[in-house]
Design goal:
Blueprint lengths: L7 H11 L1 H26 L4 H8 L3 H7 L8 H10 L17
Helix pairs in contact: 1-2, 3-4, 3-5
Length: 102
């Protein structure tokens, strides 16, 4: 069978339109990714290394690295320790009335 190039964005868009479960899972994963990406960016902007976060938080450096790795979901306890090490907090707000992120 010959190689067929796939347009990933088009494929995802079609699946989102056709499958409600896929849509929910996709947007949930995207929210997780964006949250971790924002936290890592804050760490880097402040000039703090993973080793320093580990030292301040009492977590092992490998745990800090896993927290920052896509596809890994940290425990709430470890995430809060990580955030405390950077003097960050989580703010809870109501979602905007936008059905695309349900």
């Amino acid at each position: 069978m010959p190689f067929k190039k796939v347009d990933v964005q088009k494929e995802v868009k079609e699946r989102i339109e056709k499958n409600e479960d896929f849509k929910k899972a996709y947007f949930q994963a995207d929210r997780e990714y964006e949250l971790i990406k924002e936290i890592v960016n804050k760490r880097k902007e402040s000039g703090v290394s993973q080793s320093i976060v580990a030292e301040r938080s009492g977590l092992k450096q490998q745990v800090v690295s896993r927290i920052e790795t896509e596809g890994n979901s940290p425990t709430l306890k470890n995430l809060l320790r990580y955030l405390d090490a950077l003097d960050l907090t989580i703010k809870i707000e109501e979602k905007p009335n936008d059905n695309s992120t349900t």
